[in-house]
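Appendix B, record 7
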Amino acid sequence: MTEQHVRAFMMPDVGEGLTEAEILTWYVKPGDTVTDGQVVCEVETAKAAVELPIPYDGVVHELHHPEGASVDVGRPIISVATAAAAPVAAVAPGTPSAPSAPSAPSAPVREPVLVGYGVSEGPTRRRPRRQEAAVTAAPEPTVEPAAVEMVVAEPAVVPARPLAKPPVRKLAKDLGVDLATVAPTGPAGIISREDVHRAAAPAPEERPTAPEPTPAPVAEASSAGARVTRVPVKGVRRATARAMVASAFSAPHVTEFVTVDVTRTMKLVEELRSDPDMAGLRVTPLLLVAKALLVAIRRNPEINASWDEVNQEIVIRHDVNLGIAAATPRGLVVPNIKDAHTKTLPRLAGDLGELVAAAKAGRTPPSAMADGTVTITNIGVFGIDTGTPILNPGEAAILAVGAIGLRPWVHKGKVRPRQVTTLALSFDHRLVDGELGSRVLADTADLLERPKRFLTRG
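Structure tokens (predicted):
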């Protein structure tokens, strides 16, 4: 009989600072043969949906969690029986290995990586994990006697840093709170947003809050009289909700509006669609709005900034990472185009098309949603005239674009039907005053009213 070992594949950290992920779909089942690099499941984090490849060959022995389960980073999610010439324990980097008898050379075990992220050539430094994760392992799978041996990678024992999810870490940074000094009240010692607020302002009186309602029993499928449907808030939707609350109650929002004649912009969209330089690219009004905003930012660079609460400084960014709010089946995501200010119009169109397509398909990597500096949200696609958008956390401004439609408009001294839209710019009043915000909004509107000027002169 060929000697076998069962290797447990742990839930990897698929995004900086994430502590858990939900299993959306299993692509394999016990008994299936898998190969190194094969995608075995799709998981959803607070940032995006990600496919996970298995890092070795073998036969699926056990799926440790069902679809829909939330699994902490570092816990086993699947076990695979692998053939080996001699037992080789998979040990986390930095963990001392027990001496063993000499064995035949074997191929090195590849560390789990994400699709498209590449393979680390040298030793990988693992992020600190919860202390209990190092000593509490999932139950060993039941196997035939003397046929299979469980070999599980143990996380390195390193000093644990405070556990908190990305929106909470961002909130703590904005409020100048050292997470190491915050007493966690969340499950498994995770610091919650409320913990950060209490640490930042323990003195103010707290308004009494009503107790959380007791969840009603789940109605059976046969119950025709059920009056409510309860939808669990998790993954992207939960992260969005927390980020919006943190933004709304930490940054003083101001919103300004302007209604603008975009008839020339709509004509230019039609011209560009037949331009050979734009062949194969999707040209929309949003593309020209993005270009106009980028030019307005170049003229008023102070708007491309963030507030540093710890050092009491305004941090002006010299690179513009332009976020585009995208509605997806899993919730609102805001991926951004890196260094958008350096893009030509065709390159900006290509990047914008790829960004939107990836977001709608649920394939936006966490890195694409990090480090944004300013955002556009196109609510006009829903037939909405305007709104008061909430800032993406850590940014100073967000531009909402309303529906474009024919309206009576005074043009060259006469009332004529013109293509008109309303722009709304929300900004953080701590670092953007009314003059700066008004200049940015007015410049954007002026560029959309006479779009060929910024295409020919930049």
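Remarks on this record: Confidence is low (pLDDT under 50) at residues 85-159, 202-222. The longest strand covers residues 414-428.
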